[in-house]
Amino acid sequence: MVQVLVDADNLTSARLRLLVEALGTLDEVPDTDVRMVVAGAAGAVDDVAWPAYAEVLHATGWQRADVVLVEAYEAHGDREAPLVLASGDGDFALLASRHAGPVLVVSGSPSSRLRDNATVVDPAMVGVDPLRRWLRAVLVR
Question: How many CB atoms lie within 10 A of CB 128?
């Protein structure tokens, strides 16, 4: 299982599309389940073609997407599974630091607090291959 939490308000749609492209790698890994929750304002969320398995939630208002994503994380329960955070928001730093499994942050400008406890990749700068390599590394053991 890999859990993907996407703060659509915090990343450009170009970066989000690259993330979706990289997640196609998971089709190559047998028996891999993905739980993806996407939250944000309608304009940000609706600008990307999300995979069929994604739970897409419109969340408007200050910090509302953050709350939705943290609640989704808490509901999941697997603290050792790989976690992908598509957000540069420092509000997720505590979540990343307490997660027992590997953490990947997808962001163009992540908070310094996120960099301390995760691998950080900006697909707009380096492409999707580093994302794919990270996913394979944590899932194929």
Answer: 18
User: How many C-beta neighbours within 10 Å does residue 19 have?
Assistant: 22
Q: pLDDT tens digit string along 37-61?
A: 999 999 999 999 999 889 999 998 8
In CATH, what number is assigned to the domain containing residue 114?
3.40.50.1010
User: Both tokens of residue 71?
Assistant: 């609640």
Domains in the chain: how many in total?
1
CB 59 within 8 A of CB 40: yes
Find the domain containing 135 and state its range: 2-139
The phi, psi pair for 75, rounded to 5°, reads -70, -25
CA separation for the pair 60, 64 (Å, rounded): 6
Kindly report the pTM of this predicted structure: 0.93
